[in-house]
Amino acid sequence: GAGVSQTPSNKVTEKGKYVELRCDPISGHTALYWYRQSLGQGPEFLIYFQGTGAADDSGLPNDRFFAVRPEGSVSTLKIQRTERGDSAVYLCASSLHLGYTFGSGTRLTVV
Amino acid sequence: AQSVTQPDIHITVSEGASLELRCNYSYGATPYLFWYVQSPGQGLQLLLKYFSGDTLVQGIKGFEAEFKRSQSSFNLRKPSVHWSDAAEYFCAVGPYFGNEKLTFGTGTRLTIIP
Fold first, then answer.
1. What is the DSSP string of B9-69?
2. Residue A25: how many CB atoms within 10 A of its CB?
3. How confident is the model over B53-99, as pLDDT tens digits?
4. Which stretch of DSSP H or E encloses residue A85?
5. Which conformational region is residue B53 in: left (phi greater than 0), alpha (psi within -120 to 50 degrees), or beta?
6. Do the chains contact at B4 and A42, CB–CB below 8 Å?
7. Which DSSP symbol is given to B98?
8. Which of A18, A65, A70, B4 is the one with CA 20 to 30 A from B112?
9. Whole-angstrom distance, CA of residue B72 vs CA of residue B6
């Protein structure tokens, strides 16, 4: 596609529920990143994929967070047993060489 | 560990006035520096980036930034702001070889008054 697409744009879920956030990168971009942006903060790195594999997952806060990219294109960020502190905007970006394109994000609200 | 400091949380300027947003970074090697802009409810849009070469970098929307290695700074400037420049601005640093994670500052919110 022309840009990085993230769905849904907004997600409200109850505490304890499971959620999946989807990222569709720019076609042909081999690198894909997930960031989390809390209110009043800059984006914080979560995980980076090069192709299908997670090259760096050092930013995932705990084992409730997991991300996959099975075919080297679309990626899904999965959050188990959501907590109110998980409320944030989750941003996805993709890159081919030296340049990142960000999606508009998914605003996750845990109530 | 790499870090980015944006000392100004909120700046207000009059339309038509000049603007400078400050960014200081800490990085153990040659940095790759970025400025992004984020409008409410939107993703991050790249304004400009510094990789190497000329330390004065031109970007989109009339913005420029100057890399000063001795001061570990990468300040963003615009000679005359427009009401549409009101947004959140983020400075970020990444590794020289690219395609790895970026570290962002906490952002500066810019308000424009008539």
1. SEEEEETTS-EEE--EEE-SS--EEEEEEE-TT--EEEEEEE-SS-SEEE-GGG-EEEEEG
2. 28
3. 889 999 999 999 999 999 999 999 999 999 999 999 999 998 755 55
4. none
5. left
6. yes
7. -
8. B4
9. 12
The pLDDT tens digits for B40-58 are: 878 899 999 998 888 999 9
Question: Quick check: B46 and B57 in contact, CB under 8 A?
Answer: no
Instruction: Residue B49: list chain A partners with CB under 8 A.
Output: 98-99
Sequence-ordered list of residues with C-beta below 8 angstroms from that of B97, at least 6 positions apart, any chain:
none
Q: What are phi and psi of A60, to 5 degrees?
A: -65, 125
Residues of B in contact with A103 (CB under 8 A): 43
Query: What is the C-alpha radius of gyration for chain B, rounded to an integer number of angstroms?
Result: 13
